Amino acid sequence: QAKTSGKDKTVFFNAGIGGQLSRKMELEKDLRLALEHRQFFIVYQPKWDARRGKEAGFEALLRWQHPKKGVVSPGEFIPIAEETGLIVQMTRWMLGEVCRQNKRWHDEGLFEVCISVNMSYRVFESMTLFDMVDEALRSSGLPGPMLELEITESIAMHNMAITLSQLQRVRDLGVGVSLDDFGTGHSSLGRLDEIPVDILKIDQSFVKNSDLTSKQALIVGIIGIARLLDLEVVAEGVETVEQAEFLLSRGCTLMQGYYYGRPMPPEEVEAGRWRITDISNKAAKAE
Ligand code: C2E
Ligand code: MG
Ligand code: MG
Ligand code: MG
Questions:
Q1: Which of 49, 86, 101, 196 is the most exposed place for a label (fewest CB within 10 A)?
Q2: ipTM of this complex > 0.95?
Q3: pTM
Q4: The EAL domain covers which part of the protein (predicted)?
Q5: How far is C-alpha 150 from the geometric centre of its chain's CA atoms?
């Protein structure tokens, strides 16, 4: 009997792996058609400026509405898009849409902010970043400073020379650059001053655990590094009022997280209901 159940387990295990492989293969196949079939949409997550009590900007995040599987998370499809190289076309589309959206908000007098778009190492490898950004800005008429690119430490370290020269060219258009998920990559701090960035985004893993003394020390350290290098600092993954207050008390006034707003479609951003959780009064008192 033990033998049988052992066998069953083996069969089940194999089926599991097989299932995963075929899902990945299916997604890969479907991803190739997703752009032309208009299955992507963009959600926007606010970055809150607690000092001024208003939005400081938004991060644009990609969503895939799969015709059969429902919404597939970027954690699942972005790696596939990177492997296949499809991420380059997707990013081009994303930049165009985001610039158009932001120009519309700007012209309607709704928001006067910067919107960020996440970059993949593949985009840098393809050497098309400048043309993509330039085209998106030109065709929308959006000023360069109203667009920001988020890169990670691993992108910057992946191929330093290629990354830096391309970043420099887009920065010459006035476009901002932020370092995403800061503190989680395996970069050497020693090269941070060589990467042309304007903003550090403290990774959510620090913020979520900011009731721990050790994480608090790291947060304070990152804020200090940002200040020394004359960079702005944004905390990611702020989920509770306690976390927001701690960050504020340490001089980090730019925040992003579910406490301030989840990523949402443009109609919800426009409705502005997410603005209710505002601790700017406390920010004013803290100064
Ligand atoms: P990221 O750039 O670090 O984006 C932040 C992620 O954390 C988002 O997940 C966001 O929804 C989530 N998040 C924000 N606030 C909170 C919070 O308070 N608590 C928790 N638990 N999570 C929070 P999402 O949208 O699933 O995106 C995951 C990752 O996928 C992104 O991480 C980014 O690396 C990648 N990604 C998303 N869209 C794109 C894209 O258009 N291009 C590229 N290259 N990557 C993208
Ligand atoms: Mg990001
Ligand atoms: Mg991030
Ligand atoms: Mg992240």
A1: 196
A2: yes
A3: 0.91
A4: 24-277
A5: 6
